[in-house]
Write a structure and sequence with these properties.
With 118 residues, this protein is mainly alpha-helical. It has two domains: 30 residues, no CATH class; 87 residues. Helices cover 82% and strands 0% of the residues. The protein contains seven helices and no strands. The longest helix is centred in the middle third of the chain and has 26 residues. The protein is extended, with a radius of gyration of 21 Å.
Length: 118
């Protein structure tokens, strides 16, 4: 079907379709454990330095990096718990469904509220 779309389109559109197909192929590759850990570190921990540089300086150049690394390990541990829970529940459940299965209706509401808050 992609070939038909490319054949029926303008050269610019055809080039864009090819680029999107190549991008999708590249994104299907899975990251290794180190790449995943680094991505989590960048996404959840290191961004706080961009939002609060003054707090990083106030915390001290010794204390702040230690706390940041501690937060990294806590985040990785929590992510591992989530993945283990998802695997035990069948693998095709959302965060809200995990909360409902483990804690009932209040668990689902709590998970939804914390996801909106984050």
């Amino acid at each position: 079907m992609a070939r038909k779309l490319i054949a029926d389109s303008t050269p610019i559109t055809a080039r864009k379709i090819r680029k999107e197909a190549q991008f999708e192929e590249k994104t299907k590759e899975k990251m290794g454990p180190w790449a995943t850990a680094f991505t989590i570190f960048k996404g959840f921990v290191a961004c706080s330095m961009l939002y609060m540089p003054k707090n990083f300086i106030n915390g001290g150049w010794g204390f702040s990096p230690i706390m940041m690394i501690g937060s990294l390990f806590l985040t990785l541990y929590c992510a591992k718990l989530l993945l283990d829970t998802r695997a035990k529940l069948g693998g095709k459940v959302s965060f809200s469904e995990m909360g409902e299965i483990t804690w009932g209706k209040p668990g689902r509401i709590f998970v939804d509220v914390t996801l909106v808050g984050s």
